[in-house]
Amino acid sequence: MNPPANATMFIIAVVVLFTFCTEGVAAVFHPLKCTRQKKPTSLALPLAFGSHQPTACSESGVDGVRPATCTSLSAATSSSTQTISTEASSPLGKPICIYHQVTIPTSQTGPPRQAISVEDLTPHLNALLVDSGMRSGVINVISRHTTTAITINERESRLAEDMAEYFLSLAPPDERSSAATAKEGTRYYHNDIDQRPDSPEEAQRCRDNGWDIDNEERLQAWRDQEPINAHSHLLSMLLGSSESIPVVERSMVIGQWQSVLLVDLDGPRERTVGVQLIGYQ
């Protein structure tokens, strides 16, 4: 049976529309102007170190941060900034992608003693957000150490003390640790320093981080500087190492009493975090 004439004409009209405009659906709304969104023609990737120059780090770095990436800066600024922007625009605005490495000084005093401290990242993130001009998007925050964590909660001094006591009850320090809270009878495999590295993969990681462990003296030097801190690693894994915060109308979408927190589980020490802003100006 032949299709009705009006159905045939409709099919022909649809074919004509798709012939003259590859966007198909867009042609229904813009029959006289059907263009594909212009792809970015260039990517600008400047890596600027500004007036803050990299500082010397210990040979092993700190918690897996290689010496080449250890840099110094004030708490409210970044030591290095990587910006990716495109020439194309959208109804949401100009797309941006900016990365900062931010140094966070400790609020505690004294030498490292495997103490737990809580630092508020919120003021630093707000400053970076204002400087970026980002109207909507997301801020990704990641810890750059294996014994720190990122979380969102209330920043209150007595709550910070509760956090420290509770975390240490979950994973108390090894009895071989110099920490005041070391618990007798508690031992972790990670803290058997005299048996490390105990695999080809770990040995290669040591070499990659600048330690010539094939030399007996350098191997002993590496073992001597390794902390007894397995419990700090375990707590970091429980808490998590990153957070993503939505940004709407130039403000982070967090609650009235919420703050973005850096939890140092093996301090006090100066730490660094990575902050990436992705969105639209």
Verbal overview:
The chain contains seven helices and ten strands. The strands form two sheets. The chain has a seven-stranded antiparallel β-sheet, with helices on one face. A three-stranded antiparallel β-sheet has the order 4-9-6. The chain is an alpha+beta fold and 281 residues long. The protein starts with a helix and ends with a strand. It is extended. It has helices at 5-20, 25-29, 122-132, 157-170, 200-208, 216-225, 230-239; strands spanning 47-48, 78-85, 95-104, 115-120, 136-143, 148-153, 242-248, 251-252, 259-267, 271-280.
Unreliable stretches covering 5 or more consecutive residues: 20-78
- Number of helical elements: 7
Q: What percentage of residues falls in helices of 4 or more residues?
A: 25-40%
Shape, principal axes of CA atoms: extended
Instruction: Provide the β-strand percentage band.
Output: 15-25%
Tell how many strands the DSSP assignment holds. 10
What does the average pLDDT come to?
A: 80
Structural class determined from secondary elements: alpha+beta
What is the spatial order of strands in the main beta sheet?
1-2-3-10-5-7-8
Distance between the termini: 58 Å
Described by strand count, sense and barrel closure, the largest sheet is: 7 strands, antiparallel
What integer value in Å does the Rg equal?
27 Å
List SSEs in N-to-C order: HHEEEEHEEHHHHEEEE
Overview in brief:
The protein is 27% helix and 24% strand. The protein has seven helices and ten strands.
Which SSEs are present, and which pair or pack?
Elements: H1 5-20, H2 25-29, E1 47-48, E2 78-85, E3 95-104, E4 115-120, H3 122-132, E5 136-143, E6 148-153, H4 157-170, H5 200-208, H6 216-225, H7 230-239, E7 242-248, E8 251-252, E9 259-267, E10 271-280
Antiparallel strand pairs: 1-2, 2-3, 3-10, 4-9, 5-7, 5-10, 6-9, 7-8
